[in-house]
Amino acid sequence: MNNVRLRVCAVSAAVLIGLTACGGGTDVEAADLTAEPEYEGTLSILTKFGGEPLSPYFEDLAAEYTSLHPDVDFEIIQETDQSIKDKTKTLVASSALPDIYFSWTGDYADKFIEGGLATDLTSVLAPDSEWGGTFGAASLDAFAKDGKYYAVPLYNNGKFMGYNKAVFDAAGVAVPTTFEELLAACPKLEAQGVEPLAFGNKDGWPGLHFLQQLFAYNVPQDVLEKDFDPATATWDHPGYVKSLEEFQSVVQDCTGTGSDSNGVLYSTAQQAQSSGKAAMYFQEILEFDSVVTDASAIKAEDFGIFALPAPEGAEGDPAALEGSPEGMMVNAKSPRQALAVDFLKFVTSKANAETLAGAPYSQPSTIVGAVSDATASPAVVEGVAELNDASYLLGWLDAVTVPDVADAWLAGGEALVSGSETPEEVLSSVRAASDSAE
Amino acid sequence: MRRRRRPRGWAWVAPALLLLGVFVYLPLLQNLQYSVMKWDIYAGGSSFVGLANYEKLAGDPVFWRALFNNSAYAAVSLLCQVFGALLLAALVEGLRSERWRRALRAIYFVPSAISLTVAGLLFYFVYEPELGILNALLRGVGLDSLTQAWLGQEGTAIWAVIAMSQWQGFGYSTLLFAIAIQRIPQDLFDAASLDGVGPIRRFFQVTVPLTREMTGLMIIVTLSGAFQVFNEVMVMTSGGPNNSSQVLVTWLYRMGFGRNDFGYAAAIATVIFVLTLGIALLQLAITRKRRVEW
């Protein structure tokens, strides 16, 4: 009997040990990305194109690629802007990261690179290579680290103030050229019976977008980049407090919801401009064509954009813009790296890039020449041109900082909106988070 | 005739024990293990840090805020979903009309049939500052000064979420208490009435003592549930604004999936486990001693 019991225990222990051993990663040798791939197997892809109108893009491309290479199948996981971070972490933790996966720039991308999860694509993607030469150089550089290139930038993105020209004209307001002019315009716009600036900060990050653009204006670039790294950060430049105060001013003086804005969805604000109830709305290029549609109250001819104007006498760079490309990495542990690269070359071909730039996707492709009057709306073309002309592109605040600091900014931004903390208190929390993350 | 050898009892329960071991106790042990580690999922490595995660937890103001919010959740839930629900069940079951009793049971139960996620989303729009029905009602009765962003203000966010949860869970608790009251022999109520006992004394001297087992069970379920609350907070506020509505599980989630600090998240999970286990053991001990018989 004891032997039987022992055997049962031994089998149970073996099962337990076997299960706990599951999920380990497999080291794969670096593939020769310049060689012809073997066109067989299943390519897995994690995208941020879940939902309409974006979801068919990769599905259609996969079907087309399979028609060219019948032995290649696809497994496509489509997430949204909100859900992809959690999904990616779950896949990383369970060693199930797909062959191709989405990434933002900054600290978000660095984690994959430093963790050995991103394939070094330099041999095929460097700016002087045949494929790399088809991209805007700044977009490629946004994903570069130590001179190596780790991601295929799929589309560019930047933040602009979208405005209703008809409402501005009726109020006798010109496009503001300084931050002070923007604040002064708000009461005149409100007198037209509309919300001067729609703002919904339920998720916290819309406030961070205002802050990061103001930081670019008020804090010199070298100081910003030093502060984004906890090892060198001090977060003590006076431009930060100035920016936080300006953010509070714009929330209080220009938005209809004011200190209640933390209870309003970002999409509600977007809808306010789309339905003609708001004169302005701070938005990404990716949203331009969602605001102005066939069904929207605001018509294409009334929709204009301008960069959030810089404050007078700001110490930073008045020609800097907040924005960064977003792209796809190739899993360094994938046995199909060469095939993944071949598929990404197919995705970023001129024809497919133009499809991405055009309706209904409206994603400003990073492929040179793909965004033009022939493929994209005038506002998207203008936004991309301004991004290309910007002296400095500053990435999203919650992507360029480490998670602890990003969280402190997120909570601090909400506290500024509701008025529960002063700018100095918020900055103090950020310093504490940065110090503990060092 | 040769007697067939019957398997021993442990052989019958071995598969269940194995499954429990793999899917319940092993993850619990692993969680304990992770709580003393620093785990970098991107680098795929972990290192032993002793009690550092627990020390960090003791000095984390958001953790204490979350613990306070869970405690508030538990207190309000006890009041509404145990004592309030028992009172309501007694009132409904005391009605003479069977038709009314059925109708009211159904009305109270309907919110419980809605998933928490859906209810959370529904109430997000109820609380919306510009378009929400709550502020519209307040404006309608001239209480404009009370209108606000219920989920967007640090002072009201968690209370607004708790209120929604009570609305959602109240009917289910009431129904369970109604069943417990129906199990009390009618003779006892009749005897009390013959002795001239009024409805209030009847409630305290017949209904309350004879539904004690259900009350004990409801207290366990309500308290442990209050420390595991997640869906409604996630849907309605994500713990904001400024972390004012964080509860333990949303903070755990934020630490694990937001900050990649899985060791710290495991330490929070251990605290939740200890709290809920403690509540369950305490209540089991109390209710075991006071078994109701008639």
What ranges of chain B have pLDDT less than 50 throughout 5 or more consecutive residues?
Answer: none
Portion in helices of chain B: 55-70%
Termini gap of chain B? 49 Å
Mean pLDDT of chain A: 91
Measured by DSSP, the beta-strand proportion of chain A falls in 5-15%
Q: If strands are numbered along the chain, what order do they take across the biggest sheet of chain A? A: 2-1-3-12-6
Query: What does the main sheet of chain B amount to?
Result: 2 strands, antiparallel
Radius of gyration of chain A: 24 Å
Q: How would the global form of chain A be characterised?
A: globular
Q: Biggest interface in this structure?
A: A-B, 46 and 37 residues
Give your account of this protein's structure:
The complex is a heterodimer of chains A (438) and B (294). Chain A is α/β, with parallel strands linked by helices and 438 residues long. Helices cover 45% and strands 13% of the residues of chain A. Chain A contains 19 helices and 13 strands. Chain A has helices spanning 2-21, 56-68, 84-93, 107-114, 122-125, 137-141, 165-171, 179-190, 205-218, 221-228, 238-254, 266-274, 288-291, 337-347, 350-357, 378-389, 397-400, 403-418, 423-437, and strands at 41-47, 72-78, 100-103, 144-145, 148-149, 151-155, 159-164, 195-198, 278-284, 303-306, 320-322, 326-330, 392-394. In chain A, the strands form 4 sheets. A 5-stranded mixed beta sheet of chain A has the order 2-1-3-12-6, with helices on one face. In chain A, a hairpin with a 2-residue loop joins strand 4 and strand 5 (148-149). In chain A, helix 8 packs parallel to helix 11 (238-254), helix 9 (205-218) crosses helix 11 (238-254) and helix 18 runs antiparallel to helix 19. Chain B has 294 residues and is an all-alpha fold. In chain B, 70% of the residues lie in helices and 3% in strands. Chain B is built from 13 helices and 2 strands. In chain B, strand 1 (37-40) and strand 2 (45-48) form a beta hairpin. The N and C termini of chain B lie far apart (49 Å). The mean pLDDT of chain B is 91.
